[in-house]
Amino acid sequence: MIDPAAPKPYFLGPRSENRDWLRERLGAALDDWLAWRRDLFADDPAAVTPGDAAAPAFLRRRDALEAALGELGAKLRGELPTYSPRYIGHMVSETALPALLGHFAALLHNPNNTSREASRVGTALEAEAIAMLAEMVSYDPAAAQGHFTSGGTVANLEAVWRARFRLDHRLALALTLAETEGRPLDPFADAHLTPEAAAALAARHGVDDAAMRARSSVLGNPFQIAERLSEASGRPWRGPVILAPGHKHYSWIKAANVFGLGEEAFWSVPLDAEGRLSVPGLAARIAAAREQGRPVLAVVSVAGTTELGEIDPVDAVADHLDGLRADGVDIWHHVDAAYGGFFCALDPDEPLLAPARRRALRAIGRAESVTIDPHKLGYAPYACGALLTRDAACDTVSAFVAPYVERAELGEAPWTRTLEGSRAATGAAATWLTGRALGFGPDGMGAVLSATLDSCRAIRTAVTGAIPEIRPLDPTDTNIFCFSVARRGEALSVANARTAAVHARVAASPGFSMSRTVLGREACGELIDRHVASYGGRRDADRLVLVRCVVMNPFWSEPAVRARLLPELTAELAAIVTATEDQAAA
Fold it and tell me: Are 163 and 204 in contact (CB under 8 A)?
């Protein structure tokens, strides 16, 4: 049973209930920063004198700044109230106080985690915070690597960068042996040599990095290398493919574009009847890639899909890839856990999460790389994503040189393995302080997220029990509840129009915020068919319109909040559904 008091010390509260304590802590952080600046070089002359501060021109400019700040504050009062339990729209919610304070403290000092020379403390905090996240997802924190990014999109791009390096390294080795010793080149088999087999092959033939560098499509001319790969293999080189499920995040299409692979190289893996990655479908895609001589740059599984919050069978994917690896085929596995990664903090026997989903989460640590977003279910301020890799070998990327930010005695500069050249320490500090204060285990963040699972189910039960036209989409894996609005037996096109009209009225209402999503038949055909069949409907459209509720706010678990808002939410939805029916009848 979740303790309703669990989140109370760690969040401000929907009516700023913890404001006095927060004001004191923000003031203390500000005072500490001001004292540090004042005292560190105490004998240096003051740049702003009392005379400056009293000058009319100085005061006019300060008055102008105050007026502009007041104007900004007034504008921001019109911003979306994402802190409120009434906001169940998108993947954003109340910010945790440890994360807010950590972000604020680091913001004042403003370190740039591009280099240890530019960020003495920020880079150390980052390493410690990455170790905390790594332990949460079942990586060995002593071996795991990673860094913070601006969000899941960049973290996914970072994963492609690393997977591409390993694949390119294998192909460069194979091309070297083909061109120098006449060894037959098989693009699929050679690209997927295990690390041990590749190292043994290089050692046996005395192949060094210089020889492989000359045959790298990443470091050399990719078009020329493609011609040489075609000649050595005896078949046209068409490049690698990325395999990701149909419910993938849009960032994967961006990755194919940014890395010059082309969208054709993005092969969608079919989904099963419940809308999760199909392992037989994945096996078929890998077999097709092998047949066409196209290496698999990465297999992607998702833990917490953007639309529905579903968790793919990560364990079954890992089992399949382990089977291939036992046969000498080593394929990179990336888990896009941008949303759902923090569910790893739940109790291993969490009753509100299905056993299959618990097994999937426990298997995340078997992947080569993981994306996770603290600015989602880590309740950190934007922008805060992270890439985790299993070990240093998986974190390797192409080498770069920039002497102005390098010092040998400080070790490898962080910027050499990040796409972003400048990175704030705010996300690292926010995550670090959250980990130290709340913790990323069952008694800390896990308790908060367990409460959101319970709240999601309470909302679903209340609205579906009171409003017959609301048709919940099954399954509900996590804390995202989606539904359509349909009469018994009606056509999907009519239900889609009604659902869209209901969402439009919800969006125009000041009471509650919900979002909308659309599932397409190409990716989710079986899931759409199951949903339409659940209310005896007729499928005459190739898409399913849904109202989407992301129940992240921790205060839905508060009895007084739930007692007040659940009936109000149900009544408002019922009135909107009725009004929509009346409008259609008129």
Answer: no
